[in-house]
Predict the structure of Aspartate--tRNA ligase.
Amino acid sequence: MYRTHNCGELRISEVDKDIVLAGWVQTIRKFGSITFIDLRDRYGITQLLFGEELTATLDSNPLGREFVLQVKGKVAERSNKNKNIPTGDIEVLVDSFTILNKSAVPPFTIQDDTDGGDDLRMKYRYLDLRRNAVKKNLELRYAVGRSTRNYLHEQGFMDIETPFLIKSTPEGARDFVVPSRMNEGQFYALPQSPQTFKQLLMVSGYDRYYQIVKCFRDEDLRADRQPEFTQIDCEMSFVEQEDVLSMFEGLVKRIFKDVKNIDYNEQVQRMTWEDAMWHYGNDKPDIRFCMKLANLKFPHYVFPAKQGDSGTIAGTDFKVFNDAETVLAIAVPGAAEYSRKQLDELTEWVKRPQIGMMGMVNIRYNADGSLKSSVDKFFTEDKLRQIANVAEAKAGDLILILAGREERTRKAMSELRLEMGRRLGLRKDDEFKLLWVLDFPLFEYNEENNRWVARHHPFTSPKPSDIETMISNDPAIADPEKYLEHPYANIKANAYDMVLNGNEIGGGSIRIYQKELQSKMFDALGMSREEANEKFGFLLGAFEYGAPPHGGIAFGFDRLCAILGGSESIRDFIAFPKNNSGRDVMIDAPASIDSKQLDELRLSLK
Amino acid sequence: MYRTHNCGELRISEVDKDIVLAGWVQTIRKFGSITFIDLRDRYGITQLLFGEELTATLDSNPLGREFVLQVKGKVAERSNKNKNIPTGDIEVLVDSFTILNKSAVPPFTIQDDTDGGDDLRMKYRYLDLRRNAVKKNLELRYAVGRSTRNYLHEQGFMDIETPFLIKSTPEGARDFVVPSRMNEGQFYALPQSPQTFKQLLMVSGYDRYYQIVKCFRDEDLRADRQPEFTQIDCEMSFVEQEDVLSMFEGLVKRIFKDVKNIDYNEQVQRMTWEDAMWHYGNDKPDIRFCMKLANLKFPHYVFPAKQGDSGTIAGTDFKVFNDAETVLAIAVPGAAEYSRKQLDELTEWVKRPQIGMMGMVNIRYNADGSLKSSVDKFFTEDKLRQIANVAEAKAGDLILILAGREERTRKAMSELRLEMGRRLGLRKDDEFKLLWVLDFPLFEYNEENNRWVARHHPFTSPKPSDIETMISNDPAIADPEKYLEHPYANIKANAYDMVLNGNEIGGGSIRIYQKELQSKMFDALGMSREEANEKFGFLLGAFEYGAPPHGGIAFGFDRLCAILGGSESIRDFIAFPKNNSGRDVMIDAPASIDSKQLDELRLSLK
């Protein structure tokens, strides 16, 4: 037996017991003729005391950091207690020890503040994983998974595995493909999600399905994307949107409770997609703080913006605003006293290529109630006050205004809002605000092909009130200029996204379950009957044999864990992540394969 | 809201309540002017009663099997109770109904005894999955998974996900490969198991890891293999074999309790690999029944058999036995009265090509104590009695004897033993017998390359007492004829298989954790240092930084479920299995991909 206890469990109640421990050498401190060693394992750290004789042994048999050590000894009360660790009241008086394995000097320190850079830590990921910070992340991930499984089990969901070797359906993101040796010249694809299979399970009557499952997307990787990622994938039968929302609010609240010990008792807020875009400039608003976007050009809710000029700035003579498609303002609380230098820096910030604005106008709403703007000459104080009112500014606030093309300006203002929220400390890692975003458009217009594309995926149902519109209208767009006037432009999806602290953590929809409507959807997306049958014939077939109404959701498990762990990076929450080129630098994959393998697959490299 | 209750939960206590149900039409029975419909969902079946008026409505709006129906009505006590189903005390008096979806006539009946053949049921798997038999299998699978997770959680194991896109290491079975678009000309491989990653997690100090995880093997498929299959994959640190055995006996006993409500209180039996081969003729004996193999040529334990002739048949003159490498007997209880015809049929059975014997000798040990053999002229009654003793036969038994080449004969006798066990009803689906098979040889001899191959995998540790033998001897085999005399031939592995009712359900080992020993293993397997570094450099690297002693096990989840469900076929326990050609005939995968995809991957078909 290698150990009687682990390194995290000995307490004062075990004093005088003979015990055996095994673990890694964290630190070695020699004081005169005795030696203290901190022994570490997954469960904690225990202090070992090597007396004179053993310390002499150590001189000829030196230990180093990360050596694997087994010690036999007796538990003793410490004179100098360490209140910071659970084992801090005791130490182990070592009788004998065995070096189970040696360790070379690690390429970086195994500590919370490691001196290892990203590349080095990825190459030696097995050492990086020893660090407490990373271990805590994986423990949190496990806790989130376990909480999820428990909740869904109690709610009658069944974990059912769906296949990984499926069929390529090149829609949206690229599939990874897998050449088949037994079926010459043919390929499997790795699933981007188990979407069609979970729908088939509903057709099969499984009623409530879930899976925590790997999915694959061969996309060019951005900073925080991984070619393989994990979803909490769920589907339910005989449900309407409201049933799904309430079930999965319940899931996330349960995770909060189990993992963070947070009672999220408040009602989860809801917002239409239009409101989100109008008030926050994006479809996943961070509602931990207000600072809503005010539209100075359109007084009423019009989205997307149309030409017009009847808003707050009507009748003024500032060409930059008058020529702009959109003029947006936010009121930054308590920032009226920003220095010239601070304002210049902010202006530079919005002029960065990632944001891409030409400049920024500001209005100080001073503590004394006076208003002062960088473009005073174009605006009367009365007009400035009107703007301040529309932006819901109070005395002491700083109003920031951006103007330009609708899409870019809205995006820029959304970014600026988030940046100001961050600078003002309004986006706290330990505060969690959930939000449902609802009523997304079902279709987006694709200019290149002058046709509709599915905003979510082709299985998303229109809102019940829009089904008739969809069925009774021809999807063809006669005049590309006027696509917004096509009835399809206003069809809303029976879809929902769950947003947590400004991140989309989950999304789903009520699905189409009627064969005719599904066929109409494929039509709308420009898919021929033949193509639809080749790709999704099995689903259309299934819809002929009594498909129930159903809907579901998928959560991005990696991101959910990252946010709960207070991190922006999903990579920190994946045991063996890939880098931005899709490489695992530790195992050095992908790699060449030998020509024999290629021959067997009847493939050659171009 | 689509329903207030599901189809399995209404009881007599709900009588007079207004309820809403939704589900599938299982049966329609019209009695005069009223109609009974059985409505089915995952949870059960509820009887609906359509009165005169609604029955008339049905005439003009006919329902069919598998229609999706929503009904509103009132719960009533049934006059004619059905004790076979939990809802059998009540029925629902329907007030109104809505057809949620129609159904075409299914291509086979959705019943336990379906009229659908294998091919049809695979093509319409979403309908096959509706059948109660299949549903029960998937429910059992979910229960086994849940039981596993609960037990392992309580034992301190963490579920940690390992990557699916890894590196090809062509050892043993073939990898599925995945071309990388971003890393031109390079390929990922899908894991055959997370072996090296779970070992790295031990090096990282995670102490107890598990995963229920898909694995992939591009093998030519036999009847009961799938290209993608699921493992319960586990690893522990600071353990010896005994720790692993006791932990995972615990797991399987827990599954028995949770899933089958069986208290498996007896000690799990253990057997060395040599004993298993000697007494049962294979390394996964079905110990639900005895009928051990008796060796008539070698009185003592010698395995593999060597030339010699000192056994029970010594001094006899039957050339077939004397020329054979091996002569094996079993005593079939109570079969002495088999007819000539039955014996002929058995002889034909062993002569089938799958078994491949030339013939079979039998001895009847009659109820009166006399002995009668098909080869009486070569054996005295005294000799027959000696044989009967060695075979542990009693009066009334039938002794069956096979003779021939060692390997084939042993295999044939093993098959014959299983067949007789089956015919005699000694292999009961609802009786479960666990067995650990231990002390496997570490190496097997590969004739073709005159070198050693790993019987399990190259990370399996030799038994502690054999480590010195392994390190101090040169693996090279000077004389192929005498490979059995090489010290490596006798090295035993620190490996264990768990056998349930004659099926290997799990296997594992204590791993090598010392860099030198691992390198020696790669040497022994004929892998150059360069090759070893290219393939497993990360693992050898990890072993330099303080690898702890560790070991683990992996259970075949599909097979475990099948056996617990009393089935031979794993396919019945997989929601969407592939056929023997590795095809999913429902979605028609694998399939061709378009040339654009191939171009992006820089691949061409030969």
Q: What stands out?
A: Chain A touches chain B through 123 residues (CB under 8 Å). Chain A has four domains: 12-101, 133-263+555-600, 289-427, 441-492+514-547. Residues 441-492+514-547 of chain A form one domain. The mean pLDDT of chain A is 93.
